[in-house]
Amino acid sequence: MSGELPALTGEQFIRLLLLDGWQERGRSRHGIALGKLVAGTYRVAVVPTKPGSMHTNTLHRLLSVKQTGLGRSRLLRLIERHGLS
Is the pLDDT confidence value at 65 over 70? Predict the structure, then answer.
């Protein structure tokens, strides 16, 4: 898989996070809050669930150290391992 990030819906991203050990912590009309202990810090990310692909900037913010801390390469590995559905 190339370094390009595919277009992801919020539901696809949530599924990948759940497979990575994140747990659902709450729901609102705008999204689902997921949490996980990462390197001694408890992280919480709110992933939007509106229909269609997430905006590129939203995905990049979710991958940042301040939110999930996944980064581009780890997301691509998760997609490679689990696929998108």
Answer: yes
Percent of the chain residues past pLDDT 70, beyond the cut: 96
DSSP class per residue in the chain: --SSPPP-BHHHHHHHHHHTT-EEEEE-SSEEEEEEEETTEEEEEEEE--SSBPPHHHHHHHHSTTTT--HHHHHHHHHHHH---
Q: How far apart are CA 30 and CA 28, in angstroms?
A: 5
Query: How much is the mean pLDDT over the chain?
Result: 91
Check pLDDT > 60 for residue 2.
Answer: no
Per-residue tokens: 26: 């709450």
Q: Are the C-beta atoms of residues 8 and 53 closer than 8 Å to each other?
A: yes
**Beta carbons of 34 and 24 less than 8 angstroms apart:** yes
